[in-house]
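User: Predict the structure for this protein chain, please.
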Amino acid sequence: MDKTIIKTSDKNWFKDLVEVYQKRMPATIIDDAQVGINPSADSLFAMGLKAKLSVEQWIAVGVSLGLSAAGIWMIITAVVDPEPTSKLGLLLGGGIVCVLGGGFSSIYILTKQRPPNVKIGPTGIEISWS
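Assistant: Here is the predicted structure, written as structure tokens:
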């Protein structure tokens, strides 16, 4: 299996990293944008926070992990809705059900999963799952 090379200076580096975690593929991460990530200590969620990902990037990651786009949209709509609380509870509740219903494994990948083998070398951070 070929190793994927992920550079933190690339636009979609985090989405690519999520795919590597999801498929448990070996990869080399080159932190050329000096984000300061550490796959052995940080979850994907923590790495995304360090990288200060935009809302659009988080949505792309959520969708790539199989989270319901409708659920994500409902939660965002509830938060930015200018009306008082008429639809807030329904949108938040429905959005959370949609997201959680299709996303328990996604939440695990983002918050708990870490590669068992992490080596830091001159070429970057090498991760593998065996």
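The first strand starts at residue 4 and ends at 7.
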